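Give me structure tokens for this 586-residue protein.
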Amino acid sequence: MPHQEQVMVHGNLCAPGPPNNAGYNSNPVPVIIQTESRDKWSKKMDFLLSVIGFAVDLGNVWRFPYICYQNGGGAFLIPYVLMAVFGGVPLFYMELALGQFHRTGAISIWKHICPIFKGIGFAICIIALYVSFYYNTIIAWALFYFYSSFSSTLPWTSCDNAWNTENCTNYFGKDNVTWTNYSRSPAEEFYTRNVLAVHESSGLGDVGYIRWQLMLCLFLIFTIVYFSLWKGVKTSGKVVWVTATLPYVVLLILMIRGATLPGAWKGVVFYLNPKWEKLKETSVWVDAAAQIFFSLGPGFGVLLALSSYNPFNNNCYRDAIVTSLVNCLTSFVSGFVIFTVLGYMAEQRNVNVEDVARDKGPSLLFITYPEAIANMVGSTFFAVIFFVMMITLGLDSTFGGLEAIITAVMDEYPDTLSHRRELFFGTLFNVTFFINLLFLFCKGGAYVVKLLEEFGVGSPIIAIVFLEATAVSWFYGINRFSNDIKSMLGYTPGLFWKVCWVAISPAFLAVSLNKDPLTLFDYEFPDWSITVGYIIGASSFMWIPIYMVYKLVWTPGSLKQVRQNGSPKNENLLNNLLALRHPRCR
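Here you go.
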């Protein structure tokens, strides 16, 4: 990043050390502060919209409604709110405060917190790359749908296309249509047979070839991302005024349209009807914890990066509360948008809502919703705005992930990269583009995407955030972290926040671990692919122990000497590893 200067900060920033501790360094602590040379947000709203755009993503639209009705409808809101209050929001607040105080990205921030945990920063960057690959692929599919929507009759409306089979069943506007377990809607066959062509693949070992239409869509997405980020927060802060606000306009339009459809009330009742007995099941609470964690998105390095460009005295506490509320309310409202349409589809099929509410993940957005849109009056208009919403939701997540990588690497190597942001991002752009092509293979690319989604992000990021919360609360010190916040906001966080950071939030992360069976379109992944998945997961997390070993090997002194003598001279090793001599990480 641009050059930063160091100043000596006294008082509240650094708690005074014990006067008789021989290993304590009484010198003032160098704290990096924002200077004119470091990028800043042009407006406060640029930052808020960037954070909201990152936190409110496609998962709010497709995952929360499904998880809600699956886990007790309205009753699910109780564990969801509790997990948000005691787990998700405190971690969200912690990351905003860390980034704003230390003014640096996910790698170099560990120099100021606890050096031996610096591998967390490298792991976060790798996971951010995986998230970028995933979202860019989803957006490329959405862009293909967007292009296909510009026709008087949407291509997933009828069963008269070259990719359709004898199982294709179009029930809209027709009477006495029998829907069986073998029936497939035109929208499902368009997605699985025309866009993904998974029917031509025998599985993950048969990925096929790259479809040029999808490659062109991916290139257009990367072009938008490049010119949105190449100048840093100065440009991305302007782009999010469109990408972060447009989805709310579209959601409002779709919710009003959905409410006017026949059978919409059935979907709403099914969505919110409380099943109180579900609260006795452990899986419901686990799903609530996982949903709020992945929805708010702590641990991906994005909140650290975005908040590092804030003024030092910005009220990050208020930002955390406001953006978390917006995120959770968006998830709740999205449920109405989805389930009014599911009620309409159930009415048309003459079946129960649960019979059409089986799709989750991308299938909900690429099969179920397009199927309903295709049979509405003004279908082309609603299809266009729906896929525009999907594209903008995905773009905001991609913006955040790539900005986290750029900020982290440039802050770690400022002398080399401080004036070469465009060159560095151009290199990153080309590398990620060509790797991303692996996920667009016609026939088997969808299986690669699913493997990355399950193993590349889920468990590794939860483990990483657990270590991050532990390092900040127990090694850096909860009192010291509270003093940092006091130096920015003028007051110390209350007891509630301290208890959450020290104990409750780490426990929340522990229960968030939940691994479902790996399947896609009735395809069960072979055992060797599960092994590959674990390797993908380890490819990010492994940098944490690797860096710890590196610090142990290259730091002067020995653990044996420390155990035997315990003298200040021989405490250099542990002091360097844990920054024990440092007043902010004793």
